[in-house]
Amino acid sequence: MHDDTLLLVGRVARTHGLRGHVIVNPESDFVEDRFKVGQILLVGPEDRAEAREIRDIKFHQGRPIVALAGIETIDDAEALAGAELWLPEAALGPLPQGTFYRHDLVGCEVRDRQDALVGRVTAVEGTLDRSHLVVDGTVMIPLVEHICVEIDMTGRRVVVNPPEGLLELYGRKAEKTGRSGEVENG
Asked: H or E element: which one contains 52?
């Protein structure tokens, strides 16, 4: 067990070649920062992941092909198929202004511009250029500036300006908040 919070950065897809390389399906928008020679990844289930250093890497169609220390043969690599790849949260560097780690957005309250409650972010899915917030497990809101008009990490709140019909597409309406702070049906 690790003391630091671990963040999933990828999963081993399959072997590549005969010398123990594996192809990774990345779970990060910062693939080249997460997968580089010398990086220590934790490989396996979160509760018993083993540290392995990346000793070689190349990229093909946006996916890393990595050689991990201690994985020397195709048989070693085959044993890693489906393995999760983790990094301690402390190993992540600061982000540029206006960008956010996905895990930081989870749990944020989502409200529309009229302060009506839409729900809470339960996940962030998609690639960097096509990410969307998953709200209450079902509503998908594109994570783009003209729709997610304000993100307040201190207040754990996202203000959205959804296009007409987006919320109704999911059978939802934003709920107005009364003066007492309780939710009213809207």
From this structure: strand 50-60
Q: Which CATH class is domain 102-169?
A: mainly beta
Length of the chain: 186
- Measure Cα distances from 151 to 22, 135, 155 in Å: 37, 15, 9
Q: What is the pTM of this model?
A: 0.65
Distance CA 52, CA 94 (A): 24
Alpha-carbon gap, residue 106 to 129, rounded angstroms: 18
Classify 162 as helix, strand or coil.
Answer: coil
State which fold the 6-91 domain adopts: Elongation Factor Tu (Ef-tu); domain 3 (2.40.30)
Tokens of 118: 């839409």
| pLDDT < 50: residue spans in the chain | 1-2, 178-186
pLDDT digits (tens, 9 = 90+) for 161-182: 999 888 888 877 666 554 444 4
Q: What are the sequence ranges of the domains in the chain?
A: 6-91, 102-169
Taking CA atoms, 163 is separated from 11, 14, 44, 111, 148, in Å, by: 34, 40, 41, 14, 11
